[in-house]
């Protein structure tokens, strides 16, 4: 009887331990190419301080090898796509015969762009993501065909623009004309979707640091996008990631580039205000 | 010629004489295996980098045969001992006959 009770309590303990298996984010600092130190952990911005004390990059939730891969541009497979975008940056396209470089100069001069997007566009009277801004340039300034929102050329270009901003601090505006969109994004963040009835917050706010099966839940920050994922060996855009997450709740998802995802992107980006731009990052 | 092929090499700028250094190489290449079929069911012809060599001051360091199972953008990392200052020469051989070359100088110090 005593033996049986012992065995039972051992089982209960094992069960309890499995359900609260915590794997804390690592204590490590991200130094790109041995030169640029990025902020991967900082005090939460005021508008999320009721939910989080500290905001953390997804980099801290990944394994040693994956983290090392991102710390060196040569090892980071995402940089191949950055190089491809650099060629596109300098190549004229469309009826105006202009390249990105003709107006903007060198891509390295664009380091202030990624950290502030998504942001309000006065002319269009809506919040623009970086992708929308790129397509606006292509259509109206270059006279070129728009790129597919989450297509290869687009994600490469956003990777180039992120790569030149690495080390700069994410700082999207949530007030003024962008506020309504931000509120909509916040609403979406906390809305449960799908057959599993999960909101973004259930995993990325309530449960980050826990294991979701074999995966280590991060805070779902998007400062590292676009992300080179080892599982599909390509760059993944923010909206593709949103789509994947919502699909995993077994819901019908919004489309990449939809107003809902733009609003969600603004809100999620604002949760990372204070972190460094990291893209193209390397993740599972 | 395969499109978008671009070799990349990382070699330290200097090393101590006799020091073993790490060399990293990567070439962007689609490495089409020759096993896949297109939408119409036709075999996509093989197109891979089939050989890679590295020479230091004319002396061979490594000579690699690459096979179709090697994935896109082959990455090769190896060690080499540097007896003197000189130049590493890297060569990739494509199935279509193209040869891609890159070289890096290294100093002793």
UniProtKB/TrEMBL annotation, chain A:
The active site is at residue 245. Its main location: periplasm. Residues 84-169, 184-277 form the Cytochrome c domain. Heme c 1 binds at residues 100, 103-104, 137. GO terms for biological process: sulfur oxidation. Keywords: Electron transport, Heme, Iron, Metal-binding, Periplasm, Signal, Transferase, Transport. It catalyses: S-sulfanyl-L-cysteinyl-[SoxY protein] + thiosulfate + 2 Fe(III)-[cytochrome c] = S-(2-sulfodisulfanyl)-L-cysteinyl-[SoxY protein] + 2 Fe(II)-[cytochrome c] + 2 H(+); L-cysteinyl-[SoxY protein] + thiosulfate + 2 Fe(III)-[cytochrome c] = S-sulfosulfanyl-L-cysteinyl-[SoxY protein] + 2 Fe(II)-[cytochrome c] + 2 H(+). Residues 1-23 form the signal peptide. Binds 2 heme groups per subunit. Substrate binds at residue 241. Its cofactor is heme c; heme. Heme c 2 binds at residues 200, 203-204, 245. It is an enzyme of class 2 (transferase). Belongs to the SoxA family. Heterodimer of SoxA and SoxX. This is SoxAX cytochrome complex subunit A. The lineage of its organism: Bacteria, Pseudomonadati, Pseudomonadota, Alphaproteobacteria, Rhodobacterales.
Automatic annotation (TrEMBL), chain B:
Residues 10-104 form the Sulphur oxidation protein SoxZ domain. It holds the Pfam family SoxZ. SUPFAM superfamilies: E set domains. NCBIfam families: SoxZ_true. This is Sulfur-oxidizing protein SoxZ. It comes from Litoreibacter halocynthiae.
């Amino acid at each position: 009887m005593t033996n049986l009770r012992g065995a039972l309590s051992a089982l209960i303990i094992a069960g309890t331990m499995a359900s609260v298996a915590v794997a804390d984010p690592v204590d490590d600092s991200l130094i790109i190419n041995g030169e640029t130190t990025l902020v991967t952990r900082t005090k939460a911005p005021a508008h999320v301080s009721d939910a989080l004390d500290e905001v953390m990059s997804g980099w801290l939730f990944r394994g040693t090898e994956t983290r090392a891969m991102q710390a060196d541009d040569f090892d980071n497979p995402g940089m191949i796509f950055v190089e491809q975008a650099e060629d596109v940056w300098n190549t004229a396209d469309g009826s105006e015969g202009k390249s990105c470089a003709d107006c903007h100069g060198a891509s390295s001069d664009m380091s202030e762009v990624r950290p502030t997007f998504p942001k309000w566009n006065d002319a269009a009277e809506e919040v623009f993501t970086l992708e929308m801004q790129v397509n606006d340039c292509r259509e109206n300034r270059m006279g070129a065909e728009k790129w597919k929102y989450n297509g290869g050329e687009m994600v490469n270009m956003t990777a180039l623009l992120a790569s030149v901003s690495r080390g700069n601090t994410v700082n999207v505006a949530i007030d003024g004309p962008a506020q309504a969109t931000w509120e909509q994004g916040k609403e979406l963040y906390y809305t449960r979707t799908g057959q599993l009835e999960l909101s973004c917050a259930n995993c990325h706010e309530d449960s980050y640091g826990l294991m979701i099966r074999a995966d280590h839940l991060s805070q779902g920050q998007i400062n590292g996008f676009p992300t080179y994922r080892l599982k599909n060996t390509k760059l993944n855009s923010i909206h593709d990631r949103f789509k994947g997450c919502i699909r995993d709740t077994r819901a019908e998802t919004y489309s990449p580039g939809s107003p809902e995802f733009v609003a969600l992107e603004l809100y999620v980006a604002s949760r990372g205000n204070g972190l460094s731009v990291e893209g193209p990052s390397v993740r599972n | 010629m395969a499109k978008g092929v671009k070799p990349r090499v990382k070699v330290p700028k200097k090393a101590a004489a006799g020091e073993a250094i790490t060399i990293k190489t990567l070439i962007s290449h689609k490495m089409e295996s020759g096993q896949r079929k297109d939408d119409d069911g036709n075999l996509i012809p093989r197109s891979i980098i089939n050989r890679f060599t590295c020479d230091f001051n004319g002396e061979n360091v490594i000579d690699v045969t690459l096979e179709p199972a090697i994935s896109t953008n082959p990455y090769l990392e190896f060690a080499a001992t540097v007896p003197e200052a000189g130049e590493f020469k890297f060569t990739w051989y494509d199935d279509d006959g193209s040869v891609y070359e890159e070289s890096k100088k290294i100093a002793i110090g």
